[in-house]
Design goal:
The chain is of the alpha+beta class. The chain contains 4 helices and 4 strands, in the order E-H-H-E-E-H-E-H. It has a single domain, classed as Lrp/AsnC effector binding domain/regulation of amino acid metabolism (RAM) domain (Alpha-Beta Plaits). The protein is elongated and about 50 Å long.
Length: 95
């Protein structure tokens, strides 16, 4: 299944929500699962992004729709990147 990296920043409204209800993060993960996106790993980060998520989805369309739905709420800004497995990349160069 294709892998994606979701880089996200909470908006002011999102930060207020997570501060008051930290479990909201897990609720969003459940919503992603229902949308066909599997959360593989999730990190809170320091620096330009608040969260880094490694996720899997069956297609670019699936992850794009999920990202858009989350961003439309106004609580988070998301940058989604397609990720290529290193071994697959190396193998493709050897062909």
């Amino acid at each position: 299944m294709p892998t994606y990296i979701m880089l996200s920043n909470l908006t002011e409204a999102g930060a207020k929500t997570v501060s008051k209800k930290p479990k909201r993060i897990q609720e969003v993960n459940s919503e992603l699962e229902k949308a066909g996106v599997t959360v593989v790993a999730q990190y809170v980060t320091l620096g330009p992004y608040d969260f880094v998520n490694v996720v899997e989805a069956d297609s670019n369309s699936t992850i794009a729709a999920a990202s858009l739905r989350l961003a439309a709420r106004g609580s988070v800004k998301i940058t989604t990147l397609a990720a290529v497995d290193m071994d697959e990349f190396i193998d493709s160069l050897a062909e």
